[in-house]
Specification:
Largest sheet: 9 strands, mixed
Radius of gyration: 22 Å
Strand content: 15-25%
Helix content: 25-40%
Structural class: alpha/beta
Number of strands: 15
Shape: globular
Order of helices and strands: HHEEEHEHHHHEHEEEHEEEHEEHEHEH
Bound molecules: zinc ion
Length: 384
């Protein structure tokens, strides 16, 4: 099934994926999802925020057990982050049916919209809107690199942007959510296990730093006459690294926008995006406060620590075959749902190199199969 998706949104120059929300690639992936739901006779719904739900059974009577992930990617991402969870969800459902399992509760497969935030800057957009964590007015006004608002993009994709926002009807369908995901680190390699279960998601956020200067000619402007914001930005990048070590967190400037972005011009404006995460909220907040002192900084997203509910976590780890439990620094829709009070858990599949958000991201076929089997056993247990 991953092979069926392999060509969609792939950059032939790098083999990396570019699957921005609501792009042609994303629309094709949504079509694929709808086709998989239809082939299995599942009831397909797209909610007000663009999340897709494929149901075995009717969740309007009894809240169901939902599994799934996302199909969008970071720019130049890998093949597994997101799609592995969606594909495994369909395959786990197939396995349960082959074994003659009759679920006592509805079973759903979900695909969340714009998990990565590659286009509009806010990760987990679909689940944040669904749970009301993200203000729909703010969401509609977010712009992509071409200056198009989410509102315009949704309208041209035939959606109804005025419907965005907390969706209690859809939320009421979700009794429990389990997201399977490729691990984005080497925890399971060190533990020697193909599969694991999440204990917690580190608190994390994104901040935009704007450094203003004076655009001018790179040849004729004397050094002492320059107001060059690239220097301030460069200082900040080094300071972030130094502060991260001191606070025991991770901090990254991975995206930068330079205006006018000419090789022969001193920039007039440099915007850099800081991603900061760590085991403790106080340390992450302290780092951002320190780096942001006296600067023009906007918080684009913030997700507090998510401690997955211990009872469900242990039940999932047990049903999956007594697999290990570990924390992660990566954000996920399961974390957003958990914070909104939906009992949620995560199953991780081993990543041999730990590399993620890169074309080199990988999971071995045997480990993926072990993930499907573990997910099937978890769903069987939760749907009883
Ligand atoms: Zn993901």
């Amino acid at each position: 099934m991953l092979g069926e998706l392999a060509h969609i949104g792939r950059d032939p120059a790098t083999n990396g994926y570019v699957r921005d929300a609501w792009s042609a690639a994303d629309l094709e992936l949504r079509e694929w999802f709808a086709g998989e739901a239809e082939r299995r006779g599942l009831g397909l719904r797209e909610d007000r925020n663009g999340n897709l739900w494929a149901w075995w059974g009717d969740p309007s009577r009894t809240p169901g057990v939902v599994t799934g992930s996302h199909l969008d990617s970071v720019r130049q991402g890998g093949a597994f982050d997101g799609p592995l969870g969606v594909v495994s969800a369909f395959l786990a459902l197939d396995r349960l049916r082959e074994q003659g399992f009759e679920p006592g509760r509805p079973l759903g497969v979900a695909c969340f919209t714009d998990e990565e935030g590659a286009r509009f800057g806010v990760p987990c957009m679909g689940s944040r809107l669904l749970t009301g964590v993200l203000d729909p007015e703010r969401a509609r006004g977010l712009t992509d690199d071409d200056g198009r608002t989410l509102e315009e993009v949704l309208a041209s994709a035939g959606r109804k942007p005025y419907l965005l926002g907390r969706d209690d009807e859809t939320l009421a369908h979700v009794g429990t959510f389990v997201e399977l995901h490729v691990e984005q680190g080497r925890g399971l390699v060190e533990l020697g296990s193909a599969v694991g279960v999440a204990s917690a998601i580190w608190p994390h956020g994104r901040w935009r730093f704007d450094f203003r200067g004076q655009a001018n000619h790179a040849g004729t402007t004397r050094l002492e006459d320059r107001v060059d914001p690239m220097l301030a930005f460069a200082d900040k990048v080094l300071a972030a690294r130094e502060a991260a070590v001191r606070h025991g967190v991770v901090a990254t400037f991975g995206k930068v926008r330079v205006s006018p972005n000419n090789a022969n011009a001193i920039p007039g404006l440099v915007s850099g995006w800081l991603d900061a995460r760590g085991p403790g909220e106080d340390a992450v907040r302290a780092l951002v406060a320190e780096l942001g002192a006296g600067e023009e900084v906007g918080e684009e997203s913030w997700t507090p620590v998510v401690d997955f509910e211990a009872g469900l976590r242990d039940r999932v780890a047990g049903a999956a075959g007594g697999v290990p439990v570990l924390a992660t620094g990566a954000g996920h829709d399961a974390g957003i749902l958990a914070s909104a009070g939906v009992p949620s858990a995560m199953v991780f599949v081993r990543n041999p190199t730990g590399v993620s958000h890169s074309p080199a991201e990988h999971a071995e076929e045997d480990d993926c199969a072990a993930g499907v089997e573990a997910l099937a056993r978890v769903l069987e247990d939760l749907c009883c």
